[in-house]
Amino acid sequence: MLVLLPFLAATAAAQEDDDEPLFPLSPPESIRAADHPWDDGTQIDVYIKLSLDDVPEGDPKPVTHYVIRRSGEYGGKYVDVGLAVPEKRDYHAGELKFVVEKLERGEPYFVRVAAVGSDGEESAYVETTEPVRATREWFSGANFWMGLITLLIGASVVGFILLARRGIPLRIRKIAGLEAVDEAVGRATEMGRPCLFVPGVQDINDIQTVAGLTILSRVARTAAEYDARIEVPTSRSLVMTTAREAVQSAYLAAGRPDAYHEDNIYYVTDEQFGYVAYLSGHMVREKPAACFYMGSFFAESLILAETGHSIGAIQVAGTAQPAQLPFFVAACDYTLIGEEFFAASAYLSGDPDQLGSLKGQDVGKVIVAVLLLAGCALVTLASPALIGGSLSEWFEFAGEYLRDTVLRAGT
Amino acid sequence: MKRTVPLLITATVGFVLIISRFIPATVGWGEVASVWFDILAAIAFILGGSNLLKLQLKKISDRTAGWGYAVVTLAAFLVTLTVGLLKIGSPPAPDQEFFGETFAHLELADFPETQVASVDGTIPEKADGAELPLSVRRQIREQNGRVLFRGWMLRSQMRDLLDFEDTLRWQCTVERLFEQAQPPEELAPNVSYYADHDALGYKGFMSDEDRDRLLELGRENAAWQHAVDEIYETSRRTTRMPVEQLPANFQIAASLEPVLEYDAEHKELVLRGPMSVAQRNDLARQFPAAKPIGGEDRAAFLRELESLGEPLNEEQRAAFDRAIESVWTPEQLVLALNGAGAAKEEDKTACEMLEEMQAGVRNIDPQKTVGEDVQLNPRQEELVEQFARDAEFTPDELIEQMREAGTFNDAQAAELRRFLNQGSTVGEQNRTLDRELLKHGPLTPAQRDFLLQDIRSQLAWRATVAELFFAAHLVKYKWSGEYRAEGSPFWWMYEYLFKPLTATMFALLAFYVASAAFRAFRAKNVEAILLLGTAFIILLGRTFAGVWLTAWIPDELAGLRIENLTTYIMQIFTTAGNRAIMIGIALGIASTSLKVLLGVDRSYLGSREG
Fold first, then answer.
1. The complex's ipTM?
2. Which residues of B353-459 form beta strands (DSSP E)?
């Protein structure tokens, strides 16, 4: 950290009139600038000791804010980089911190700060006399909490997978929507009609599409075993090729490679409502006996589900779009809600490795519950009516830290 | 191997994206990975497109049920693809066309050695290894303590260089280099070199003198000579445009005088060379600016209007006065001219600031005051009043008389023209009047013709000027425009075929919501009754009827009013439920992503099954 001496403009003291000072406001007592820790090398921190005229109360306040300027050389052209308004806790500390952003890594910077009064008049400036340089660290501190939580959840998922491999029995609750897959495909077989699988309207880089395709793999295998026809119209080319791989392998695994028809998995259009128009028309004409909607859906969810309902198909839907869940719940026979959708692959496969990952997910829920309770407790205890004094303030600060730093990290 | 390679790619890219979130040095890797995905998805579209073609052709060939739809799909696909890909009918991008300029290809290496500028100084080295801005990288270099620049520096290039380092010494070097790296004085207003385009540019019609001056710059340079000759030929192209009727008081603006003339015999405008946007605007501006009409003039105008039909009713008369008074006032013009005459704050140059810094100035003010305050004197203000009253008093006459009456600088003259140009013309004002009067009562066809005659001529003239402007322009980058630029065939198909069709599909949602709600809200058990009750409150709370029904509830029990109950349910119960689902989803995503990256779940690739 670089500590720098305050420097008052020479003119401030020297050019005072007999009766009236040139600057009616006291400047900041001192400033220091240092590299912002754990960043990408584009920020420096400026610590400003508040002006003697700066008090928290007053109408108007004598000092309303501080103006911060920077230059690439000492005594050169200084440009405004922002304004800093002190908050309650800054008055307690007597110091204010301002982060100068969008700097060039490793370049020297000099800073000047002046207090500004309610009438817009500036005090003399205080400046740094040594350059400060922004350096890049190996880790982004802004994402520390996010990284820690990710690590905890990731480690617990891996940990439970390892436990499952050692043969520790893991139990998961029944998910009706997934139990219904065999029933739906069986019904289609009995009726001699096809199954329709819709993997959503997003591309393969969307995790919901990937989750949908893992379910497709299972549905296709059941269809192959029952000798039912499965159709997969897609709205993205990459999803089509991936779905073909998944279905082909499923047919192979079921011992029915000859029954696999590549043309049953085809591309329609990227356009949302063009895709919906095709699917609706296709459903009305072909009347599939079972419809699966597994992936990311938007406004088309209800159009598809209602069309499916109108032709009397058994319908199973799964998505992680909260806004579309009520539509699927209202119009489909079974709906995989949020996390159930992601658990489907593990559930259907019964593979211990994958079941372990579901248990690891539960650790995440415990962390969320603990943070939820801690947040509620801190906000309650921060109420001045309950405790009051500096302890209340500490709880308030802790609550704000939890909300703004821990939970909003990296957003 | 067929499964392992995609799995490895997935895992690598996935981990890179995660790491780039936490390790600043790898942020760029994440961006590159995302770009690669986009490229891959774009290439994959060929697969999708060919699959679509294959299936539709098969349907047609097999004459399967509904093969007619396949024909329509195929035709729509091919037409859209062709029109969009070839940008048929799309105009070129205006910012790439350099209207008014003629280009000739000239490589930077062929730029004459005589035109390489150099100043004392060094190019700074950046701590993070950043290179010079891309816009100048090919043109600038350092040699023996001097900075050299090949080509003529554009203002945008100077700005890029100034931003490269935040020190006055470097910025002063750039300013001096900019001054050096300019064409000879006589050629400077017209000639430019665009290194990004590898093009020598010339504004307007090239004279023989300018051609000789340019050729002189590179006597032994064949490429240069060729480029100059090419521009000379192209820039002297003549464009003729038939004109049905010239505007009354037609004048050729000073900017067009040397290159434009009216051929009265053939009733044609004859333009030599290309036309710039400023010249186009000057030519289009042939119609007098509207002026305030007061007193007897206003009464006479009204009498004339009423003589062509029925007298205006009370509301029309009020609208007439409002419309007439919405034009500028002499006070506003005086204020604008005084504002333009005030001394200006201008940015100091880096060299000026460097000089101050070296002289020991502690707090450099980056701005300086330029010029003196020039305010209108009473006689000049009187002239403005007179100008506003007299319809025959032209802006040129006003400027001349203002200069005779006192100090009136160029900035004020420019402000006067800008002030009048940004306001309405007489035709535009009368069109507004026509619209306002029609809102409050009828007008006869004769009255409307009287009000609209000026704007009709104005619009017809503008169309002629626009045609001349584009006819005189040689397109530089045919495919630079947006494929769905307004007015293009693709835009037309999108607006009038595609959008209505998608809107129709979307509109179906309203009916499906009703039918789904009907089933969902049937009170068959306790949960359904709760759902029905909640839905009833929310639906009612969002209508005026709901608010009206519970408005009688006293303020002490305001929480029971239906709109407040709605807000309470949405903010507390719905938000809580939504958040619970969101948390579950977030954890599910984390777990699934990890399974995919670690290869625990490979069923989406078919591995587990195969």
1. 0.86
2. 367-370
